Amino acid sequence: MQKDKLLIIDDEERLRNLLARILQLEGYDVLVAANGKDGLKKLQQENVPVVISDVKLPDYNGIDLTLQIKSIRPATEVIVLTAFGTINDGVKAIKSGAFDYITKGDDNEKIIPLVSKAMDKALLQYRVQELEQKLNDKFGFDRLIGKSAAVTEVIKLAQKVALTDTTVLLLGETGTGKELFAEAIHQASPRHNKAFVAVNCSAFTKELLESELFGHKAGSFTGAVKDKKGLFEEANGGTIFLDEIGELDHELQAKLLRVLESQQFLKIGDTKPTQVNVRILAATNRNLQEEVSKEGFRSDLYYRLSVFQITLPALRDRKKDIKLLAEYFMNYFGLKVKKQFTGMTDKFVEKLEAYGWPGNIRELKNVIERAVILADEAVLDESLLPYEMQEPSPVKAGNSLSAFDLASIEKLHIQRVLNHTHGNRAEAARLLNIGVATLYRKLKDYGME
């Protein structure tokens, strides 16, 4: 049974062939090279998990060669062969990144378990690399679809700040993809191998949110039968994303400010502060500056959160991306329902691009999912779109709605979603991706109770 590839680099042909034969009998696919240059060439052409190299080569010192190998294939493990009296070279090679060394002339059986251990470690590292790449494909900047100037500029900003530990405040309307951007920033940051924890601050009551964020001690309140770790502890070493930050109660704003300033907080019922190392990303669709002026949001917290602001563009401001996004969602939902689509009609795309998209990308996603479910043909056409997109409703006389008033657009969208859910407010809140409490507040504000 073939285990995997390894490369032997040695200028002594007899020893090179002997080692190759021993390892081939163990099931390894063995490549050989007589010097460092040829060895590096083979390494560039193929993935080789383990390299066995002489410390003294005609064109390379084994220590320098180890550094070269690790620069080309960081996950590859190197075993150094040393002659008697040159063990110091083997030790130096290990300090340069080699897995281990073995002295020439030792019992050749020692090489087999050593290679096996190196192979196990290297294959694990290659597997980790593969998983990290898949993770980056799933959560990184590459999955942010769009070629318009509005979105490419925002992505450039996010990529720059991702490399730092700076707190970021993501602004923009509901449905513009703030959580996707937060995940991409985390994935491109030095913290990417630690946890990314997202929490919607509007989805909990004040008391429950405090417990969720900071945890509690057993007996601190009725029902607290055991200690609980909060989300800040869960995110220790990584990133926490606080969505709908504008919904935070004043008392929780003060606790969050302490975390930003000292990376410490008190659990409910605890007297000893808990220390964490967490990067904070936050998002809101509110105008926090206005909230500060109304004393609805702490000014000191606002200034700490808004060290670096990124405003995500509304979908109506990036019309060039609508077709790209629609095609992506068409293929995505097509796979889920086992339907294959060849495209969309020009009229279908025209209707999409002419619409105002008050619900932004989230609304587009829902519209395409609906069209995919209803479609009987391989091409999506305008008949699959919601009625209001096919024939926009005229505004009745005396109606105060303005096509340019954001609050009116939001009110209309909420009404459409409530119509869609037949008045089910919990389901409407889920589709709008806001907390039920936030929906009730908006219904009250718009006189829709």
Summary of the model, kept short:
This protein has 449 residues and is α/β, with parallel strands linked by helices. It contains 19 helices and 16 strands.
Query: Which fold does the CATH topology of the largest domain refer to?
Result: Rossmann fold
- CATH classification class of the largest domain: Alpha Beta
Percentage of residues assigned to helices:
40-55%
Q: Multimeric state of these chains?
A: single chain
State the domain count. Answer: 4
Average pLDDT for all residues: 86
What is the rounded Rg? 30 Å
Strand content of the residues, in percent? Answer: 5-15%
Strand line-up of the largest beta sheet? 2-1-3-4-5
GO biological process, one term: phosphorelay signal transduction system
Pfam family, one: Sigma54_activat
GO molecular function: ATP binding; sequence-specific DNA binding
InterPro entries: AAA+_ATPase, AAA_lid_NorR, CheY-like_superfamily, Homeodomain-like_sf, HTH_Fis, P-loop_NTPase, Sig_transdc_resp-reg_receiver, Sigma_54_int
Secondary structure layout plus pairing:
Elements: E1 5-9, H1 13-25, E2 29-33, H2 36-45, E3 50-54, H3 62-72, E4 77-82, H4 87-95, E5 100-103, H5 111-139, H6 149-162, E6 168-171, H7 178-187, E7 196-200, H8 206-214, E8 215-216, E9 228-229, H9 231-234, E10 239-243, H10 250-262, E11 264-265, E12 274-275, E13 279-284, H11 288-293, H12 299-305, E14 308-311, H13 322-336, E15 343-344, H14 346-354, H15 360-374, E16 379-380, H16 387-390, H17 406-420, H18 425-432, H19 436-445
Parallel strand pairs: 1-2, 1-3, 3-4, 4-5, 6-13, 6-14, 7-10, 10-13, 15-16
Antiparallel strand pairs: 8-9, 11-12
Helix pairs in contact: 2-3, 3-4, 6-7, 10-12, 13-15, 17-18, 18-19
Protein name: DNA-binding NtrC family response regulator
InterPro entries: AAA+_ATPase, AAA_lid_NorR, CheY-like_superfamily, Homeodomain-like_sf, HTH_Fis, P-loop_NTPase, Sig_transdc_resp-reg_receiver, Sigma_54_int
Keywords: DNA-binding
